[in-house]
Amino acid sequence: MKQRQKAILVTGIILAGYIIFGIFSYVLRHNYGMGYPHGGFLFPAGDRYMDFFNVNQMVSGNRPYQDYRSSYPPLILVIAKVFSLFADYLHVAPQEIKNTTAGKLSLWICMGGFTLLNASLMYVTLKKRADGVLPMILRWIVVIALVCTAPYIFMIDRGNYLIISLLFFMGFAFFYGENDTLAAIFLGLTAAIKIYPLFFGLIYLLDRKWLKMLIFILSGGLLTLITFAFWNGGLMENVIAFKNAVTSYGEGHAHEALNVYFSVGLTSAIRFPYISQRIYDLPLSSHPLRYYVGIGTMLTLMSLWCLFREKQSWKKIMVLSALMVWLTPNSYMYNLTYMIPSVLLYIMAEPTERKWVDIVYACILGLMLIPKAYYYFVPEFYISVAIIIDAILLPALVLFYILFDRTSREKFKWKKQVEA
Fold it and tell me: Which end of the chain is more exposed for a tag (fewer CB within 10 A), N or C?
């Protein structure tokens, strides 16, 4: 498929997904009188934007790791510190600040400003790599469609600082292969804001770019250590408290339903059969960790075996992005925004030798980005069918690449590898 056809297909799927879900929601609420969460895919209105305000409160006393056991890396907390200065978080509850003029102003400066930067980088990416192939109006349609995807809207609805990590991740995808030093710095910044992009260090292993891997590690690592020292308690105390918080977060919430709602990853998929039947005490033999390590390791190794011979960098980024989102413990729907750079790279890439392969990629990527909460198994805990659909789409993309898209891989030559 040509770039224009891919752009039209992906944006068409996103638009159709919203239209169908919108009609479904209208019928459900106006014809059948069903209220929230039926017909919706976002958090309850009372909890809207609270990630933003809760994190701002964490940093207001300069003790986010000791007092709040924060699992956020320190760089993003330094950025949050700036927004916490808009209101008196030490004496006023975040829920109250949310309704003040100062609170609303800080929220929309952050969410609006970084959305504008994200959209601008998307457009620049398309203009630079697809100028003359995609007309200006189509470039803007793609950008608007991606900013209005369900995961992006969910991220805004939560007020999550992931929006900043996404900006740096798109910078990495934009420069990778053209300015690898700058790409490595951007990836280091991405990992310094959210931990799981550390997974992307694998791309330097695949491409044997050892110096760039070092730049990635140093840029993210040094910045993280410097910003740890920014907080009260000292460097080592903050590092230890952060490690404990991350370990605790990885184990999940005490109430198993909270490990599944609005999620898209493997750990949620493993818990889903129980939670969807309101079984909240998982049998010890069914603990997610027992399956998570085995399944995750197997799929990762299979992917790396294929990606090691892959010649097209956009496929490496797409597959690793899907793995990263799927394998993140308690991976919420806003993590699917990490697939947006892959959509851009897919659109701009040269057509594959098989048109049907391009069509399948477009369908899977497009379906990831639309609302899918058509049925709630457990409405009181927001457990919908979208959880299992997304948890299937991510590995489906990876497995499709492994099994059916071999057109851009080098043939494996055993003797040559042994001699090397």
Answer: C
Could you read off the pLDDT of 102-132 as tens digits, one per residue?
999 999 999 999 999 999 999 999 998 776 7
Token pair for 371: 């609302």
**Contact (CB, 8 A) for 58 and 222:** no
Place of tokens 């049998």: 283
CB-CB contact of 365 with 339 (8 Å): yes
Residue 411, both tokens: 């043939």
Residue/partner pairs of 170-177 with CB below 8 Å, 24 or more apart: 170/118, 170/121, 170/122, 170/125, 170/340, 170/341, 170/344, 171/121, 172/200, 172/341, 173/125, 173/317, 173/341, 173/342, 173/344, 173/345, 174/121, 174/124, 174/125, 174/341, 176/203, 176/313, 176/317, 177/313
Nearest Cα to Cα of residue 357 among 317, 303, 405: 405
d(CA 239, CA 227): 11
Residues 325-359 have pLDDT tens digits of: 999 988 999 999 999 999 999 999 987 778 899 99
Q: How far is CA 17 from the centre of its chain?
A: 20
What would you report as the CA-atom Rg of the chain, rounded to the nearest whole angstrom? Answer: 22
Identify the burial level of 69 via C-beta atoms within 10 angstroms of its C-beta, where 0-12 means exposed, 13-18 middle and 19 or more buried.
Answer: middle
Three-class SS state of 227: helix
d(CA 74, CA 58): 11
How far apart are the C-alpha atoms of 308 and 381, rounded to whole Å?
42
Contacts of 160 (CB under 8 A, 6+ apart): 51, 52, 334
